[in-house]
Amino acid sequence: MISIRDVLVVGYALSRIVKIIAVLLLLPIPVAVIYQEWSVIGDFVMAASLSYSLALIMQIFFYTEDDVKFKHAMVVSAFIWIFGSFLAGLPLWISGTVNTPLDATFDGMSAWTTTGLTMIPDVDHVSYTVNFWRHLTQFVGGAGIVVFALALLTRSVAGAVRLYSAEGREEKIFPSITKTAKAILGICLVYLLFGSLALSAVAVYEGMPLGAALFDGVMTSMAGFSTGGFSTHSQSILFYHSTIYELVAVILFVAGSFNFTLHFAVLTGNRTELKKNIEILTFSITLIALTIIIMSFLLYFNVYSDYVILFKKGFFQLISGHTTTGFQSVNSIQMAREWPYITLFAVTVSMILGACSSSTAGGIKALRVGLIIKMFIYEIKRVVLPESAVIVEKYHHIHPATLSNRTARGALLIAIGYIILFTLGSLITMFYGYSMIEAMFETASAVANTGLSVGIANYQAPPVIKITYLFLMWMGRLEIIAVFVLVGVSYLALKRAMRLSIEMYRAGEKVKDKVVDVGRKLEKPLRK
Amino acid sequence: MQRERNLPERVFDAVLDLLNIEKNVVLGIAAEAVLVSIWMLVAFIIAVALTVLYKL
What we know:
- With about 525 residues, chain A is mostly helical.
- Chain A has helices at about 5-25, 30-35, 40-60, 70-95, 100-110, 130-150, 160-165, 175-205, 210-225, 245-255, 260-265, 275, 280-300, 305-320, 330-340, 340-355, 365-385, 405-430, 435-445, 465-475, 480-525; strands spanning about 395, 400.
- In chain A, strands 1-2 form a two-stranded antiparallel sheet.
- Chain B has helices at about 5-20, 25-55.
- Chain B is elongated and about 60 Å long.
- The interface of A and B includes residues 247, 268, 291, 305 and 311 of A.
């Protein structure tokens, strides 16, 4: 049952996260000072103070001493993306980087959910400070969702948790949340450091000035490791025209799309895990199969005839889609016009499949895909083998495990959820006159939090499409289940509110009757 | 008795000390980078093979 207490707990938890966002909004100010962009400072101060005031009001309004329970965490996680997106979009709107509040919220959502679609009309001329803010939110969003997924949402408290992790086991690096969060932050920062240094070095080697190379290096690492895909240039990674730069970026965003428990296993010396893990196996198989499809059709239709370009364009776009990053080595319009439909479809499939669970990536995720394949194998075996045979399907994910019905059902349910969202989104996009393949591509990009684009999601798109993608990004990031929980909770809350209001109305009627009675009784002696 | 470390090893350790990063972490990152490189190599071989096949 939902009570007022639950509302208070959720509101109070939200207020605390809004406070963190307010503090985050102050972080770009040093960047503004370094690049002497004085006018932007005001925008960020204004956004930060607005957020902080909101947090304070919420804190007073929802003050409670009750603890956050699992159901609250689900609702908070569903709500905070909407709140956070609006707040993250505030400086973009105030500074005039985007045209409307809807665009600003879209960009905020795209950043937090590590998608990478953008509503900024002129990405190449955005101030350093705003660029830093966009990339920072992506990086924090990437690390944050993992901390949340690992530390909060995979505690086996209720059935929903098992659904959420689609695995019958807890997936935590350390038993305590703070330690897990610290470990994840450590991994993120180490990669950020290595990535920034490597990318800057490559950019300098390719002839970029040191300052610009450093800034772009840090930004690309933040967007890359979080599999976000924002870029400081409208041409994305294509801007650099450097194969080495692209290769380093690939290593970085593939690393970001790995499961964090896997990272931890590998970084603490258990390197054989890379060979055995079901996620890595599934991902490798789908990656290589899709690579063959894309490259052979690009060749067949004579889009690229040279193998180096084939690799640079075909493979890069595919792995950028498969890890749900969204860096583009081909211009979006060019991709929509030149690439054969089947290759666009293959990239769409790769985006929907996604990379590893408990990572910064989106999509159905390799673990679930692997489990679903295992389930098919199990069913086939059950039909083929004699009835008396005991069939056990095993897989390895950090530890050896056996496929249970419950796990398989969880994986399948989330996969179906993604496909439903994908279909609905595609239909809405098609309604606005886009071709089926373009609609599917762009919708997959939004729902799997990828950010590759064939040019639909830009500032000129119809508002309905913007809102649709906004919600798709949100639901995709929450892996749908949290949204179901939110809908369920809202339904219960609404029902309770209705009942309460009916009771209050009836109570009011009774009081009214009584008042009328008393009035009449008083009236009688007066008349006499 | 401990093996005497050569200069590159000592420099490597000194840099890690300076950055306060464990050696294992760097090796882990290297292992992941190797895996990604293998994928890229496979993709490149596929590209070459397909091109050659197509041109034939």
